[in-house]
Amino acid sequence: MNDVLGSDNERLLERLKLDDESAFERIVELYRPMVYYHAYNRLKRGEEARDLVQDIFVKVWKIRHRLPDYTCIKNLLLFLTKQHVIDLRRHWEVEKKSRDRLLKEASYIDGDKFLDNRTLGRQLAAAINSLPPKQQNVFRLIMFENKSHHEIVESLSLKPQTVKNTMSKALAALREKLAFIKKS
Fold it and tell me: Hey, what's the signal peptide range on this chain (predicted)?
């Protein structure tokens, strides 16, 4: 890919800072393949890489007025890609730990006695059913139907951050609701 060098970069940046949507569209057109390539190579997940690309360009639009005049657009996009990948991996790790902790907490009483599967299933179902409808729906789609965040965003017309926040709240609520299992 040919990089936009020198004065072309400066002109695009100037126009972007002046809220020129055509300059922004040109930046997206020029750099979307590069950003996707780097995101996909680090994530190895196509849907998440596409979501990340969209998030990065939204971020560029939001911070356009704060960009220094000497900003190299390519370097900015590579930096944002790297940071977003790190953040996303951290989020996945937190989600995995929460899911593992929830399953572990739901499986033991006092660390020694196992609940029988039917009792555990009923208590878990009751805890899930007590969640607000949106949390129930997002939780079930992710945990039971193995839907990705991107699929949920598209099917429920939610923002990616809303899906993440809703899942985090659902996991926290379930940990709280199932905490009595450990204490019994």
Answer: none
Q: Kindly list the domain boundaries of the chain, sorted by start residue.
A: 6-87, 115-183
Among 32-36, 70-74, 92-96, the minimum mean pLDDT is found in: 92-96
| Protein fold of 115-183 | Arc Repressor Mutant, subunit A (1.10.10)
pLDDT band of 99, cuts 50, 70, 90: confident
The CATH class, in words, for 6-87 is: mainly alpha
Collect all residues with Cβ–Cβ distance below 8 Å to 75 and sequence separation of at least 6.
none
Which pLDDT belongs to residue 105? 62
